[in-house]
Structures are given as C-alpha cells and as structure tokens.
Amino acid sequence: MLIELNDLLEKTGISPAAVMVMRHRPTEPELRAVLPWLASEQHELYNAYQSNHGEVVEKALTKARYLASFIGRAPGRAVFVGLYEVVGFSTVTSAEFWSLPGNARLREFGTRGPKNGRDSLVFDLRCTEHMAEWKGKLILEWTGIERSWWRWAARNRLPVAAIYEESLLVRAMPGWQELALDWKQLQLLPMSWRQALAQWRGIYYIFDRSACLGYVGSAYGSDNILGRWLNYAATGDGGNRLLRGRDPNNFAFSILQRVSPDLPADDVVVLEGTWKKRLHARTPYGLNAN
User: Fold this and answer.
1) Which residue among 23, 67, 184, 215 has its CA within the 20 to 30 Å range from the CA of 276?
2) Phi-psi sector, 289: left (phi>0), alpha (psi -120 to 50), beta
C-alpha cells in the first residue's frame, strides 16, 4: 500500500489543507553544503534560514498553519526536518533583517536576504513534536517539477520513499584521504565528525586558494587534529605568522598523513618536516616560516 505525506499528517490529526511543504535546496553552494548540518545540530540557524522568503512565498505562507520542512538530498528526494507551526509573522526593514539572530552568520554562507533591500516578512516558526521521531529518517518522493520547491500538501501527492533507522541529515564523514573542508565549515562540524577528528593525530595541510600557497602543520596535542582546526576556526590563522593577515575564507583544510595515536610528539614533528620539504611549503614557496 502506497503511503503519502498526507496520510501521515492526517494520522497525527493535522489537515493537509493547513500545511505548506517546502523542500529547501539553497542556490548558494556554501549554504547548500552545510544546511543539513544546521538542521541536525544548529536548529536556530536552520530556522532563521527558512523564516524569510520572497514576496510570492511569504504571501502564501501567511495562509498556512503549519510548515512541513524538508531538505533536498538527491534529485526527486526530500529529507524530513520537522513540522513547524506558523505562529505569526512581522514586517522588518533590510537593516532590521540583518540584525536578527542568525542572519549575519547565514550571510557568511552566501544568504542574500530580502531582494532589492525591500521590507519583508519574518515568520515565527515553532517546531512541533508531530512526526519528530522521523527527523532525518523520512524520505519523500518529490514528484513533478524539481524546481517547484514549495507546495500545498493537500494539492499534491508526495509518496513516502523510505523511512530509515538512522538520520541522513549528517552523512558519514569521508575517509581522511578524501576529507576537504573550507574554513567556515570548521565552525559547524557535526558532533560525529568532531569525535573522529579528536581521535586523529597527524599532518594536515592548509591551502590558500587566493595565493596558491600551502601550509603544513602537525597535530598531536589535546584533541589532536580537531583541537588544531578549531583553533583555526576561532582565530583564522592559528597563531602562525605567515597566515596572519590573510583571508581565511580562502583556506582549504585537508589531512596529509594520519599517524598512530601513541606516536611520540617528536616523531610527529619530524614527519611534519618531511612534508614541508616534499611540498616546498617553506617560505618563499609556501607559508611555513621554518
């Protein structure tokens, strides 16, 4: 028997006629990459993202009682985040919009905000307990036109494609050889990724895309690679002289070599030196001062 979103809504006592469905898939690449992380572990930022829309969508949303929020995972698929009650809305100027909690942070990931600086509506969306157990696990078939990213539930048939045991919002971290992160992503690392990086010690690489120069570093102290990378996330330069004054938004982070957790610090430093030599990372060809 085919089960649809509307069947699930009705079983929870909610009329599909009162529900708008959104499948978020930002056009901004940086935001698209981290939006599932925000939905999973940074809810205030995620909700700030979905609380403001263009004129057509905001006009429609004023008529909804609930918002069923999804994220586009793959073509024709939508991952459930939550069912939100539309408590109300208010009009804000462009200046007021950027002063609201979360919006300045979202701007760092490319959010453009109200079009042409117009006054716009900001919605008060409260996540309900309805269907909360399926967050990240319920997958819908997003039928029809892919770019039609918002719809009224009652007017559409959105079949359930799958319900998983574990959340799909945070993908398993790639192997260390494939890991490549931007500086801003370091600030939003999911907890499962943090736990893995805290166990890894070794040699890492920072590439400044604007200058086409690289920096080699080693991690063997508290929290290993995680500890070092969170330092860069907080300071931008990690206290390294030749990284100071550079725009960390141009930095890409990767791991060159993992080593044994009990390898002595002196041996890790020796390995670091060999990588500096092989990659010509010392000044003037790179960003290592020594």
Assistant:
1) 184
2) alpha
Q: Establish whether the linkage from the previous residue to 284 is cis, with ω within 30° of 0.
A: yes
Strands (E), the chain: 19-24, 66-74, 77-92, 120-127, 138-141, 150-152, 160-163, 180-182, 201-208, 213-219, 251-259
Tokens of 126: 């409260």
CA separation (Å) from 39 to 19, 168, 188, 279?
20, 11, 11, 38
CA distances to 81, 98, 218, 236, 271 from 197, rounded to whole Å, are 26, 33, 13, 19, 19
Task: Please check whether residue 213 is in contact with residue 286, taking contact to mean a CB–CB distance below 8 angstroms.
Answer: yes
Token duo for residue 62: 């004023």
| Partners of residue 86 on adjacent β-strands | 125
Domains annotated for the chain, with CATH where assigned, are 5-163 (no CATH), 180-278 (3.40.1440.10)
Q: Are 17 and 155 in contact (CB under 8 A)?
A: no
Residue 227 · residue 205 · CB < 8 Å? no
Report the alpha-carbon angle 172-209-227, nearest 5.
50
Determine what percent of the chain falls in helix, strand and coil, rounding each to the nearest 5.
35, 30, 35
What are 215-249's pLDDT values in tens digits? 999 999 889 999 999 999 999 999 999 999 999 99
**163-198 confidence digits (pLDDT tens):** 999 999 998 899 999 999 999 999 999 999 999 999
Q: What are the structure tokens assigned to 160, written together?
A: 């359930």
